[in-house]
Fold:
Amino acid sequence: MSTLEQIEAAILMLSSDEFQQFRQWFFDVDYQRWDEQIEQDIADGKLDALAEEAIADYEASHSQRMYSIIQ
Structure:
């Protein structure tokens, strides 16, 4: 049995309360890793083209304020 299969089996054995605690822990770790990946992508310049495009759209008045979209 692989490690992943062992983890899956253990998760299925958790009580409802333990599962809720596990789920919160898992989401926290997932969000932390996502934040770290975004920070690394920014540092590596991977988002520069998107930022430049957004700034160009804003400067060309291709954007709208959110409240005007909602109304």
Observations:
- The CA atoms of residues 5 and 49 lie 41 Å apart.
- The helical segments are 3-12, 16-43, 48-59, 66-70.
